[in-house]
Hints:
The chain has 13 helices and 19 strands. With 420 residues, it is α+β, with helices and mostly antiparallel strands. It has three domains: 2-84, CATH 2.40.50.100; 115-173, E3-binding domain (Dihydrolipoamide Transferase, Irregular); 216-418, 2-Layer Sandwich (Chloramphenicol Acetyltransferase). The strands form five sheets. Strands 9, 12, 15, 16, 17, 18 and 19 form a seven-stranded mixed β-sheet that branches. The protein has a four-stranded antiparallel β-sheet with strand order 1-8-6-3, with no helix packed on it. Strands 5-4-2-7 form a four-stranded antiparallel β-sheet, with no helix packed on it. A hairpin with a 2-residue loop joins β18 (367-373) and β19 (376-390). The longest helix has 18 residues, at 226-243. Mean pLDDT is 80; it is low at 82-121 and 169-177.
Amino acid sequence: MATEVKVPTLGESVTEATVGQWLKKPGEAVAVDEPIASLETDKVAVEVPSPVAGVLGQQLVKEGDTVNVGAVIATVDEGASAAAKPAAAAPAPAAAPAPTPTPAPAASAAPAPSVESDPSGSITLSPAVRRLVLEHGLDPSRITGTGKDGRLTKDDVMAAIEAGTAVAAAPATAPAAPAADVPAAGPSRKQERVKMTRLRQTVAKRLKSAQETAALLTTFNDVDMTAVIEARTKYKDLFEKKHGIRLGFMGFFTKAVCMALKDIPGVNAQIEGDEIVYNDFCDISVAVSAPNGLVVPVIRNAESMSVAEIEKTIAGFGKKAKEGTLSMADMAGGTFTISNGGVFGSLMSTPIINPPQSAVLGLHRIEERPVVKDGQIVIRQMMYMALSYDHRLIDGREAVTFLVAVKNAIEDPTRLLIDL
């Protein structure tokens, strides 16, 4: 008996999605609620579970197709879970007796699956991961995947590149060169066309719309991170022992931002038509890196949370982003955004606001620089901060005042305790 697999409800006002990746192939056994496909919406990836246990039958849509909520995308045949595997494996032994001639055994049959024509072999790769594998000539079967169900992520591939491991076998093509006196081929000039993911299309539209609609302006300041670093170094072990989470810098900055937003409410406001909406709460959007791109979940009512609660929330978002389990509810709303490009080594940038928000704070890398303190040149741990804002709503005086308030709180963390 074949059971239909339908596109589940994707969230409020979301009616369609794109088939990002099939996680199971026809003929493979599936358990109840086991994910068989990944759908990409405007904000998050959603996995489609199997409604019954059995064997995946037909895939009625292809990767890259757009599907509506409730549409049938596949069928699952109940009751033949184990039978399908031998059936699929049966043709393999039939092909094995064929290479009876002596030349065939000499040519290695094992390296054939890792030939460049299909570098992923039987491993299911996302378009972004497949592109990295092709560009760097890696064998995906020799890379340990840390994603959901052991799937490879971009971080896994980049780690293999840095380690210099898992290089694809070029010997298969190398023996052909000595046989003929043909000059060695020049550098590769291959091109690959990959359809933009639904998430990337949405990000592109929203950021372009922000540039066209808002009067964007960015103001900069630098902040001495020495006091925060010393506090973190002194208390990080006790903090982790008590709260079960590492003490990072985002907890300090989120608290400092919430204090500054109370003093300058216009930075926490937004324009709706010909009205200005002021928010007496701080829902802080934090940019988190996910395998399929940057996502921005929201820390709700961050102004009433402790540093430990903020760090736990951010760590939870990071884990869900890596596993691809962020929900639409995690992403909705937000009154202000913090984007930390410093974790990737950025020195300075001009971030773009996330509409309908009116401002975004960009953090950058921390590095030792000579600065003048009390008439003396000293080495301090410094960071550049950038505040991009909608000049239609926020004046330069407000933007600078906000940035200075954050700077003062970070340079003297005691202010965070006494709300000063």
